[in-house]
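does this look right to u?? protoporphyrin IX containing FE version
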Amino acid sequence: MKFFAVLALCVVGAIATPLTADQVNLVQSSWAQVKNNEVDILAAVFAAYPDIQARFPQFAGQDLAAVRGTAAFATQATRIVSFFSEVIALSGDSSNAAAVNSLVTRLGQDHQTRGVTRAQFNEFRAAFLAYLQANVSFGDNVAAAWNQALDNTYAIAFQTLTA
Ligand code: HEM
Ligand SMILES: *[C@@H]1O[C@H](CO)[C@@H](O)[C@H](O)[C@H]1NC(C)=O
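got this back:
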């Protein structure tokens, strides 16, 4: 079963370099330090890249300081952080590769439909990594683990997010 899941992913070219067990631990333990800061994380992304905020009908054109305390903001922040938590929790076991592939493929599709671009996903990545770097113990090993995890995830998302 594992063999076929891995084979299927290799055929579509989704997973370039799987994380080592050590890297999975580094991602999971560093994520645990900030995963309850969902509002702060989304606010940091919007502050760094207002074009991302502008894509959200419920936040477009509004002052970040005013929207960041709203229920709608908490809802969206929780969606994004929960998505990361779900993928990170699955990533420890290679037999979950097909499940991760399907979740992230759908994420790419949904965002393609909304007119989100690869460039914006890359902006999100930059702001997200900056947040981590400032707010978790972030050595070269942690940076390398997160970069590999994001490379793998984005490779899947960009198969359906093509703009
Ligand atoms: C980088 C630029 C991004 C933009 C501009 C963007 C924009 C949006 C928008 C407009 C919505 C719909 C919100 C609503 O109508 O209530 C949404 C939903 C969502 N976004 Fe994003 N998003 C981005 C990146 C991401 C990333 C990187 C993730 C996760 C890793 C993510 C996860 C989600 C989830 C889980 C939802 C709700 C479920 C869904 O409808 O797909 N988004 N996003
Ligand atoms: C670090 O975390 C704090 C509190 O969550 C946040 O205000 C700050 O923007 C973060 N740093 C970066 C560089 O994102």
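Residues 37, 40, 44, 130-131, 134-135 surround 2-acetamido-2-deoxy-beta-D-glucopyranose (ligand 2) (CB under 6 Å). idk if thats expected tbh
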